[in-house]
Amino acid sequence: MKHISTLLFAFIIVTAVHAQKPRPDAFPPVPDSLAPKVVNMATTLDEMASWDRYPTYEVYVDMMQRFANDYPTLCHLDTIGTSVQNRLILSLSITGTGDTSGRPEFFYTSTMHGDEVTGFYLMLRLCDTLLRSYGTSADITNLLNRVRVYINPLSNPDGTYHGGNHTVASSIRYNANYVDLNRNYPDPFGTDPLDPLQKENEVMINYVQNHHFLLSANLHGGSEVMNYPWDSYTSYQQLNEHANWWKEVSKRFVDTCRLYDNRRFRDVTSNGYINGGDWYVIHNGRQDYFNYYCDVREITMELSTSKTLSTDRLQHYWNCQSHALINFIKEIFTIPNATENITPAIATHYNVYPNPTRGPITVTTPTHAYHYNLSDRPAGVYVIPVEGRAVKVVKY
Hints:
By secondary structure, this protein is of the alpha/beta class. It contains 9 helices and 16 strands. It has helices spanning 57-70, 118-133, 138-144, 157-160, 199-209, 243-260, 276-279, 286-293, 314-330, and strands at residues 10-12, 41-42, 54-55, 75-82, 88-94, 105-110, 148-152, 213-220, 223-228, 273-275, 297-304, 351-353, 360-364, 369-373, 380-386, 389-395. Helix 6 (243-260) packs antiparallel against helix 9 (314-330).
């Protein structure tokens, strides 16, 4: 047993940035329904069992930790980074047992606009469904035996828990600096962001660049439409080279949802999908950045006309969209040459768990397992050298 004090590690001190005044949306989303809205919160893990509420921040972190603890052979929990206010930005990696080298990587990420929380709920429930169904559902077992799925349910925790860790009812679009994270990425077409690159986006860029995601979806709310690239141009100005493929993929997603509720995905276009710039043009968005610079096909999914969906509607939206969300992962195999020249994920070689941790951690390499204990250390981000590689661990 090696003690953490015997190793050289770095403790990263995070400083807050002065808040800026919020800017209005470049394009206001569809207004929420005027019907009364219920926003119930789960304050314990047991209260999430019925899937009829949103988790408090602490329950969210505990849920992600429990997934990793309950299914150690199927998943591990990683910390993408921390927000401006030092909340955790987490990602769960899920794949089947056996030889995992060479499996293509898929990425779901949600709620970069903090008040668009339908996707937050859906991604947590998707994690639970994939893990519970492995070994009992032939379809999901086969899928996880072929793909490594990464799920980041909440990429802007400061916006979602703007009113405090106990509620999402006071969530806002922006991060703690009142910056719209989806107008803050470096633009491949030459427009500089109005604000410095925000911490949440910086760590997300690093995370994506350290993987080889072939397909990704970024989940939003405020409308119901599949928004494919480009966002910076209309299709008449600059058509995406994969536009026909995106249309086919989007149609399959929308058609699957409409099998369960034919009213879905009709508020923007009748077919339920659109080239982003044909809806409205934005610059410095995440979708264009990742498609252009990171060799990943990413789409923006707008999944509910209400940004903060009433909790009495959560079950219905899961019923409508769960099959489409699972099937969308399989679209990784419809990408031409998708399985050629795949770089195995780092996580298949170095596994760190639990991460984040309240104390003990284990780091496994292809040949060894190392055990450390951070119980006597303050909360923060630690970098631990293991066999010549820097391993990042978050103590909370």
